[in-house]
Amino acid sequence: MKILIQHAEILDPASSFHQKEKNVLINNGRIIEIGDKNYTADKVIKADGMKLSTGWFDIGTFAGDPGLEHKEDLESVSRAAAAGGFTGIALLPNTVPCVQTKNEISYLVKGNDTQLVQIHPLAAVTKNNKGEELTEMIDLHEAGAAAFTDGLKSIWHTDIFLKSLQYVQKFNGLIIDHPEDIWLNLFGQMHEGINSTMLGLKGMPRIAEDVAVGRNLELLGYAGGRLHFAKISTGKSVDMIRAAKKKLNVTCDIAIYQPLLDDSLLATFDTNYKVNPPLREKADNDALIKALKDGTIDVLCSGHTPHEDESKSLEFDLADFGMINLQTFGMHLAALAETVAWDTLIEKVTVNPRKLLGLELPKIEVEEKANLTLFDPNRSWLFDERANYSRAKNSPWLNRQIKGKVIAVFNNGRNKIDD
């Protein structure tokens, strides 16, 4: 079936049609025409005012499969990802068992050649994500692990962290770390500041992140290798990473909601805003926006962390950290576009995450495979339980009208169109 995307603005720095409004004709999973003609098609998507990019990619999605399927399984996370605009997701290893053998890798990548949303496993750095003993990373790399991380947990053990950086250099592997001093954050519930004091909640101070970032940069300078910081949140972390980029092979990402939300939202004790790293203050948000603009922040991720009701609908201090955010990613992207250029944002959700993981980069050109996301930043829609494809419901935007909607995704000869 021929599908025509009509009058979309193409955003792909590798394409000769970058920043141009064109008609794009797709047939049998390939782009067969790009131009100004009204090509004959079986289906026409009127895309005035919409952005057409290569398929979005999320570098740190959490799903509970295997072992925690009641939170999210592979089918539900794939549906949510497609609806949210993603044609590729890298899954965190915090499952039961965690992703630490060839069997888990094989289970996750099966069907990647035909699926609309391709899954790329991130394997554990340490056995059972405990931070005490290294996994067989060479074997896991050969089995298809895209990178190595303890996911939602930090690599807290200094010697283990150092050895992991040295170990992956044998195959130019990437270590991804969630920077957090677990002792400084012990029993913490939210950002440490005026609001935590007023609410009577134990705080999670900026220094818990800053100390971990500083330590890890020192170890990277000593050991060499490639290091990526996941979901940074403080102004000082940004400053340290910006300086380190001049001499070290270091990159970082932020959860896309981080520069848009602050800790005042926790005044109602809504556990859906309880995330790690925590929502911080305006000064940190401003620092993150600046870092997005100057390239210090390489990647925007969803921070998608699903939980069942029993883990969220209870007292604030007992609730688990995290929110679902695959399908509401576009809302945040549209909000960030008010202060950050679209070119900059799209690069951080398409090109950069794939480069980090050494994946093939799709391109919007004639005869290329159609790996595309069509996004309408002005479309309002209701994100309710019927529209939510995740198994979880822990989102502060559930049952609310939001602005910014993915209209179509294409990949592997498949598509999902919601026009």
TrEMBL record:
Family annotation (Gene3D superfamilies): Metal-dependent hydrolases, Urease, subunit C, domain 1
InterPro entries for this protein: DHOase, DHOase/Allantoinase_Hydrolase, DHOase_cat, Metal-dep_hydrolase_composite, Metal_Hydrolase
One Pfam entry name: DHOase
Domain of life: Bacteria
Keyword Cell wall biogenesis/degradation listed: no
Keywords per UniProt: Pyrimidine biosynthesis
Location of the Dihydroorotase catalytic domain: 65-235
Name of the protein: Dihydroorotase
Lineage, opening ranks: Bacteria, Pseudomonadati, Bacteroidota, Cytophagia, Cytophagales
